[in-house]
Amino acid sequence: MRNSRIFFLLALLIAVAAIAWYISSHRASPSEVTVYYSKVDGQSEIPWTISARAQQPGESAAAYAQYLALYAASQAVTGPPPDVTAIRFPAGTRVLSASVDATTATVDLSPEVNHPGGALNESGEFKALIWTLTALPGIDRVAVRVAGSKVATLNGGSFEIDEPLRRSDW
Fold first, then answer.
1. Are residues 92 and 113 in contact, defined by beta-carbon separation less than 8 angstroms?
2. Can you give the C-alpha Rg of the chain in angstroms?
3. Is residue 164 within 8 Å of residue 126, measured between CB atoms?
4. In terms of residue numbers, what domain contains 95?
5. Which DSSP helix (H) or strand (E) runs through 25?
6. What is the pLDDT of residues 96-124, one digit of tens each?
7. Distance between CA 88 and CA 131 in Å, rounded?
8. pLDDT in tens, 142-164
9. Which of 23, 73, 140, 141 is spaced 20 to 30 A from 34 at the CA atom?
10. How many domains in the chain?
11. 7 in a domain, yes or no?
12. Does a structural domain hold residue 116?
């Protein structure tokens, strides 16, 4: 009788430990993404760490990479908190979609981005976007689209976006 109690308690302890391990190993933990914003001098970047959800159980690596690209691009376009002085995308600009194919992220921006703001602003806006996305694992270049179309330059005409951009372009 005593041996059967010990066996039962031992089995119960093992079952509880197995359940605790399963729950802890399958629970999503928070992740972080570094978003960059260009200082008004247009030369230097401000890194800003934000929380992002972790890869979910059963979510493919490709689906998670696409989520991170969309989330990070949206944060870069939205800009830093109002009290941070930085170059910002034109008001109303938003990310319509983002995808990842091999080492290239493609970001489709709304037409509001096509607002003449000068060479310094254009360069700072896109530098922040490219640096943010290339900080993600596996991404080394970013293709930009405007309202679904490949465009040579924005209305300002000073910054070419018809080919994928890399950090080394700055």
1. no
2. 23
3. no
4. 28-169
5. helix 2-25
6. 999 999 999 999 999 998 776 666 777 88
7. 14
8. 999 999 989 888 776 677 888 99
9. 23
10. 1
11. no
12. yes
The secondary element (H helix, E strand) that includes residue 72 is: helix 61-78
Distance of CA 27 to the CA centre of its chain: 21
Tell me, yes or no, whether 97 lies in a domain. Answer: yes
Q: Which two tokens stand for residue 3?
A: 């041996």
Contacts of 158 (CB under 8 A, 6+ apart): 118, 119, 122, 123
Among candidate residues 146, 140, 139, 150, the one with its CA nearest the CA of residue 125:
146
Task: Give all strands (DSSP E) within the chain, no chain letters.
Answer: 31-38, 45-52, 95-101, 104-109, 141-146
Measured over the CA atoms of residue 40, residue 41, residue 47 and residue 53, the dihedral's sign is positive
Instruction: Enter the DSSP assignment of 149.
Output: B
Residue 95 belongs to a domain: yes
Cα(67)–Cα(96) distance, integer angstroms: 13
Q: Identity (one letter) of the amino acid at 84?
A: V
Token pair in block for residue 71: 């989330």
Tokens of 161: 């976006």
Q: Residue 36: count other Cβ atoms within 10 Å of its Cβ.
A: 24
